[in-house]
Amino acid sequence: MNNEYRNAIRDLINKNIQQGTLNNLIVWDVRSDEAQDPTLLSLRIYGSRKHTDVIQVACGVSGIYEKLPEKRIAVPKITDVMRLRTEYQV
């Protein structure tokens, strides 16, 4: 289920980017302190450290200890994240 959930996150991000509907996403410039700690980036974007899986997918990294790229990313809004978490029972 976890891989399907991550794929759904990736698909949602890619669909919105391809359709040019960035207003359905949160666009963020990853700073150097955030690049070292995906939980910090999750906290700043979502107000919680528990959405590191979304951050990893958006940044294209596979592990929590992998350094995030310092670039602009797009992540789903929290309502979409929570909907997908419920749908995929994560």
Write a compact overview of the structure shown.
The protein contains 5 helices and 2 strands; from the N terminus they run αβαααβα. The protein is mainly α and 90 residues long.
Kindly describe this structure.
The chain contains five helices and two strands. A two-stranded antiparallel sheet has the order 1-2. The protein has helices at 2-19, 32-35, 38-46, 52-59, 78-87, and strands at 25-29, 72-76. The termini are close together. The protein is globular. It has 90 residues and is mostly helical. The longest helix has 18 residues, at 2-19. Helix content is 54%, strand content 11%. The mean pLDDT is 96. Helix 3 packs across helix 4.
Layout of strands and helices, then pairs:
Blueprint: H1 2-19, E1 25-29, H2 32-35, H3 38-46, H4 52-59, E2 72-76, H5 78-87
Antiparallel strand pairs: 1-2
Helix pairs in contact: 1-4, 3-4
